[in-house]
Design goal:
The structure holds two protein chains of two kinds. Chain A has 19 helices and no strands. Chain A is mainly alpha-helical. Chain B is α+β, with helices and mostly antiparallel strands. Chain B has one domain: Alpha-Beta Plaits. In chain B, the strands form two sheets. Chain B has a four-stranded antiparallel sheet. The chains are: A mainly alpha, B alpha+beta.
Chain lengths: 416, 154
């Protein structure tokens, strides 16, 4: 690895902690980011000669703070900057700073930094863009390309989001227990949004947006290192690893989505699956189930099946029932119906779907699944109606093609 | 003499490597390992999952306490280890230097082995999923049971 690549990784890794501490110090996001930038420039000059410091984050915080203070002073009375050697010779100060950072202070710092990105007044896209810019340190160009918009437009969105955040006045005192738990919940949801922005992409967009999945996983790792005993954070990281593990198998050569049953399972990432399983296993020992853990457990059951027919659908049905209780939603019930179909047959599955008709009437997947069940029950006429409705609602040509295939089968069956 | 080379590095940094850097690093380490293996010096090699997957059992009390996370919160984490067969410490330091050139940052702690019983191993270490599937199935059942006691609509 080149020296520059190593430096780059070290700066990226130290960024959330350093920016978060500088934010607490300056109470101003703009200033904190500038101070961090300054510190990075100095690191690029000093680390190659002197070797990297033992605690890069502490070094960057201290140098960033000094540099920003100098900037303020210089503007006020034109005092000369201290020579580079003074600023870089930080052995003692660094140890002192590192000690204070270990005091658990930085845990709330990083949580606060993540939390201000989740401000409820910000549209979800702005929340995500802000987190990727400020916490992950992605460039505006990188974020714009992941969101498939122009750079100027993305720059404007981020600027607007920052202004709103500055006006929001998130308190800088250490949060209380309840508030910390609430912040943690918001931040977890925001990280999962980042993941889904990447995961829900298809076609040519998928490659462009895949980095969002990796960044979300990195943020979840960061959050779990800070909150090591939170089963839902373990569940969130496990869920994303277990889903992202299938990335290489999820699209065909033409970039169209490949359904779980049809995926080449040898393309799944074993290391990610193993880590996801280890995490969900660890989370469940806490006996405090939550939606991320349950969804991760479902993903785990799919990932552990060597062939589609090995899938433990009875267990998946149980877990969806649990998820229905934790977070009732017609879409969860729809997913459960798919499992019930495998376990108890189309009749039982259809019975589960019927009460959802009104709420899911505009949902492509609902009519597709319903058509499938009706077909299995030999109710061809109703099945055709459901499939027609699904085609009208299809979001992509691939979805429509999939349903048309079912209709063709129906037609074949009718003519034979 | 058998030595353990315990690999310590900042896992935040290691996990921030790009895919290309990671692959390049693995290729370089692979080349060194192959050379060591040809020279008959290489024993078992293990790479650990990140410390977020770690659980610690404190057995200095009764009953023992099970805690999430690694034993020690340190700047650099134990990421894996090699067992190498070297004539003396100089030789072991040389091997560590060579591996170190292939993988930047962090440190190797070189510790002579007091006991080594590879022949007693009963685990098939070649199977790719270390976490036992049976243990998982049980945990999953636990979750189902428990949640049925949870208040509905929570």
């Amino acid at each position: 690895m080149s020296e520059l690549a190593w430096l780059d990784a070290a700066l990226t890794a130290a960024r959330p902690q350093a920016v978060a501490a500088l934010l607490r110090y300056f109470r101003n996001l703009e200033l904190a980011e500038e101070a961090f930038q300054d510190a990075c420039l100095r690191a690029l000059k000093s680390w190659p000669d002197k070797g990297p410091p033992r605690d890069p984050a502490a070094w960057l915080i201290l140098v960033g703070r000094n540099a920003a203070l100098d900037g303020v002073r210089r503007r006020s009375r034109d005092a000369p900057l201290p020579p580079e050697t003074v600023l870089s010779d930080l052995e003692d100060a660094e140890a002192d700073m590192a000690e204070r950072l270990d005091g658990g202070h930085y845990r709330d710092d990083v949580l606060r930094l993540l939390f201000i990105c989740c401000h409820p007044d910000l549209p979800q896209i702005q929340q995500i863009a802000l987190a990727l810019r400020v916490v992950s340190g992605l460039t505006v160009t990188e974020i714009a390309s992941a969101f498939l918009v122009g750079e100027a437009a993305m720059e404007q969105r981020i600027t607007r989001a920052k202004r709103k955040v500055a006006a929001a006045n998130v308190p800088f005192e250490a949060p209380g227990l309840v508030e910390r738990a609430e912040r943690l919940g918001c931040v977890a949801a925001m990280i999962y949004l980042v993941f889904n922005e990447g995961y829900s992409a298809s076609g040519g967009e998928a490659t462009l947006r895949a980095p969002l999945c990796e960044e979300a996983i990195r943020l979840a790792r960061l959050l779990l290192r800070l909150f090591q005993t939170e089963p839902e954070v373990m569940g969130l990281l496990a869920l994303m690893l277990l889903q992202h593990a299938r990335a290489a198998a999820r699209f065909d050569a033409a970039g169209e989505i490949v359904l779980l049953d049809d995926q080449d399972r040898s393309l799944w990432n074993d290391a990610m699956i193993a880590e996801g399983l280890a995490l969900i296993d660890k989370a469940m020992r806490h006996r405090r189930p939550g939606p991320y853990q349950v969804q991760a457990a479902i993903a785990a059951l799919h990932d552990r099946a060597a062939r589609p027919e090995d899938t433990d659908w009875a267990e998946i049905d149980q877990l969806y029932a649990t998820l229905e209780r934790l977070t009732p939603s017609p879409v969860v019930t729809l997913n459960r119906a798919v499992a019930v179909n495998k376990v108890a047959g189309a009749g039982a599955a259809l019975a589960l779907l019927e009460p959802l008709g009104e709420r899911l009437d505009g949902y492509f997947y609902f009519h597709g699944v319903r058509g499938q069940f009706l077909l299995q029950l030999g109710r061809a006429g109703q099945a055709r109606e459901a499939f027609d409705r699904a085609i009208a609602l299809a979001n992509t040509p691939a979805e429509a093609a999939h349903i048309r295939m079912q209709l063709d089968r129906l037609a074949d069956a009718a003519s034979s | 003499m058998l030595y353990a080379l315990l690999c310590y590095n900042d896992e935040k940094t290691v996990w921030s490597w790009s895919k290309e850097e990671e692959d390049a690093c693995m290729a370089r380490i692979g080349a060194v390992q192959e050379k060591l293996a040809r020279a008959g010096k290489l024993g078992p090699v293990a790479r650990l999952m990140p410390t977020t997957t770690a659980t610690t059992l404190r057995k200095d009390q009764d009953p023992p306490l099970v805690i999430d996370g690694p034993f020690a919160e340190t700047k650099e984490q134990l990421l894996g280890f090699y067992i190498v067969d070297c004539v003396d410490l100089d030789d072991a330091v040389g091997v560590a230097k060579e591996l170190g050139k292939a993988s930047p940052g962090g440190a190797y702690e070189i510790r002579p082995l007091a006991v080594f019983r590879p022949d007693e191993a009963r685990v098939d270490v070649s199977s790719e999923t270390p976490s036992g599937a049976s243990a998982f199935a049980k945990a999953s059942a636990d979750l189902g049971d428990l949640s049925s006691e949870a208040p509905s609509g929570a």
